[in-house]
Structures are given as C-alpha cells and as structure tokens.
Amino acid sequence: MNELSRIHLNGLRAVEAVAREGSLAGAAALLGVTPGAVSQHVRRAEAQLGCTLFDRGAGHLVPTPLGAEVADELGRGFGLLAAAVRRARQAGQGTLTVSVAPIFASKWLVWRVQDFAAAHPELSLRIDAAVEMVDLDRSDTDLAIRVGRGPWRGVRAERLARQYVFPVCSPALAERPLAEIPMLVDRNGPDWWAAWRQASGNAEPAGPPGPVYSDGALCLDAAIAGQGVFLAWPTLAGDAIARGQLVIARPGVLDTGASYWMVTRAGEPRLPPKCAAFAAWLRAALAESHAALGLETS
C-alpha cells in the first residue's frame, strides 16, 4: 500500500505549520482552523506515523530533532504541491494575481488598473489587498507590491520607486501658520515630522495634536475634510492633490529610506512574461505619479 494513502494530509499540514509557526495558535491562523483542531491533527499524524514529532510543554509544542527534519521535508513538499496547483489553475487562463497593501490598492492602484487592462487585454488581473506579506511559495499569488527597505531573503525583490513624504492639507488651511494647524496622527505609522523639518529646513513651530487615526488612508481623508496637516506620500495623496482636494502645505520632501518593491519567487529562473508586463506598466505609472509632484522614482 502506498505510504501516503495511510496518512491524512491535514495531519501532515498541521505538523508542518506548527513547526514553522512555533505555536498552535499561529498554525491555526495559517490553516484557518482552531488550535484544538490543529492539536488533534498533530496527534493523529503522530499515531499514524508511529513516532513523536513534538515535545509538549505548557501550551506549546517544540519539534523533536526528528520532527524538525520531517517538518522541513514537508515544507519543501507542500511548496512543490502549491507550485503544481498554481500551474494547473493558471494554465491557459492568463490570470495575474497581485498582492498589495490595502492603502496602496484603494488610493492608487484601483484607479489605474483599467489602463493596464487596456494595454494587456489577454490578462485577467486579480488584486489581493492584505497587510501581511504573502508566502509566494505557498500561494497562487504571482507577485507582491510592498513598501519597505528591502531586499528580503528568500524572494526576488526589484525596487520600483523611492518613497517620499511631504505635508498636505486642505486649501482652506494652507495659508495658516503650521503652528495653528492640527497635526493628524497615524498611530500605526512612523513619525516623520522631525526628519522632514531637518530635510526641508522648515523651522516653523509644530501645530497642536490633531485627531488620531489607525492608518494613513483615514488621515488623508481627515486632511481632505480640513481637520489638519498630514505627512503623505505620492501614491496616497497624489490624486487628491490633482483633484484640488489637497495642496502641499509647505515645500520640501523627505526621502524616508523606504521604497516600493516588486516581490516575486526567488526560485524562478526568469520573470514570467505576465509579471514582466505588469512590472513595466507599474514602473511607468509610478514614475508618472511622482513626476506630477516634481519627484523622481530613483
């Protein structure tokens, strides 16, 4: 009898996920089940294999030396399975799946994808907006667009454009001293104000604290609503500036040191044609957005 037919696939997936994530909770989140279900799958797999793969402590599982070896082999095997499934799904379909951060998707990309579709009618574009960095080797995602300092190990990362920030506010507030304009706060983002003042040479006193929001998109909407000034970036604020909803409050930009990157699988000998087509279009579109604000991408 084939050995694999005697072992439940869910059990093997649970073993690999627990070893990789380091906890039942992490594995459960990855697999979309409860920690209790993961624990049961692991125990069933150990019983079917006839060996112990984890040492059990208070609320955690630690791979035994054998368990670590088995999990490593399983990880490579599931990677090959994911690649096979991905190839089967996309063969002849011309589907391009792109993972992007939600803010980048909603404030910039969705307003331009029709241009890519017109240039490449043979491709069907699927946008997956997520904050987490997708595991390209274990998903059907073709490429990811991320902002950071990069590059990262285990993937191929190509820089597309540098990230700059500059102060924006509503036209009604632009003539007021900065000291009188509330400073909008993204509680989950970096505080670039001191670095921007140094880079721009602006010595105006800071304004009073303004409303605090959970992400940059909300801060941008608050700035449009006249609630204060915010340090924004081209893909976030460029379109609102073009529409006249916002203005650049003061001259001067800060290079944050981060960049926009296109991330693809490291193991592919060359960039697939559909990814190359999207990369060329994206690079040109980002350059256009930056140029509209007097900025360069490199």
Put the structure in a nutshell.
The chain is of the alpha/beta class and 298 residues long. The chain contains ten helices and eleven strands. Strands 3, 4, 5, 6, 9, 10 and 11 form a seven-stranded mixed sheet that branches.
Total strands = 11
The helix fraction, in percent, is 40-55%
Query: What is the correct CATH architecture of the largest domain?
Result: 3-Layer(aba) Sandwich
Low-confidence stretches: none
Order of helices and strands: HHHEEHEHHEEEEHEHEHEEH
Q: Note the quaternary state here.
A: single chain
CATH topology-level fold name of the largest domain: D-Maltodextrin-Binding Protein, domain 2
Q: What characterizes the major β-sheet?
A: 7 strands, mixed
Average pLDDT rating: 90
For the record, the CATH class of the largest domain is Alpha Beta
Task: Compute the separation of the termini in Å.
Answer: 59 Å
From the alpha carbons, calculate the radius of gyration and give it in angstroms.
Answer: 24 Å
Number of helices: 10
Silhouette: elongated
- State the secondary-structure class: alpha/beta
User: How many separate domains make up the residues?
Assistant: 2
Beta-strand percentage? Answer: 15-25%
